[in-house]
Specification:
Layout: H1 7-16, H2 20-36, H3 47-56, H4 60-80, H5 88-101, H6 106-136
Helix pairs in contact: 1-2, 2-6, 3-4, 4-5, 4-6, 5-6
């Protein structure tokens, strides 16, 4: 079962831990996305590795990582019959805009991703519960 993640908890704990929690958060979230999207022929890279590559590439790799995550969530929405409006381009727009204007705006991109993962996780959990219940009967 994939747990629901709360945006405000993410923001608060990221602030209190000077960003360390956000690394853990996205690491766990990328694992959950790989479970939700299993069988789509793609895999979301481990966030810790993406974060390290982001340091080496001055943040460019992280932009690509977020872009791919946004697109993968939108494609998974189609698989689960959920209309997800935001894609990787929307996420990157908010990340880049937030970086140049006032970094608070980049949290909106995080909100979009967290919201979409939660919606898909809810559907994933419901499907697994139904499948497990049918297998036990």
């Amino acid at each position: 079962m994939i747990q629901r993640r709360e945006f405000w908890t993410y923001v608060l704990l990221s602030f209190v831990t000077c960003g360390i929690y956000s690394i853990y958060f996205w690491y766990k979230c990328s694992e959950d996305v790989n479970r939700i999207c299993l069988g789509d022929g793609d895999e979301t890279m481990n966030f810790i590795l993406a974060w390290l590559l982001g340091i080496v590439t001055c943040g460019i790799f992280l932009i690509i990582w977020y872009y791919k995550l946004g697109n993968r969530l939108q494609m998974a929405g189609q698989k689960y019959g959920i209309a997800i409006q935001e894609n990787g381009t929307t996420v990157i727009l908010w990340k880049v805009l937030g970086t140049f204007v006032c970094s608070v705006l980049s949290y909106y991109a995080d909100y979009i991703l967290i919201k979409n993962v939660n919606v898909l996780a809810e559907k994933y959990n419901a499907n697994n519960f139904t499948n497990n219940f049918a297998n036990q009967a």
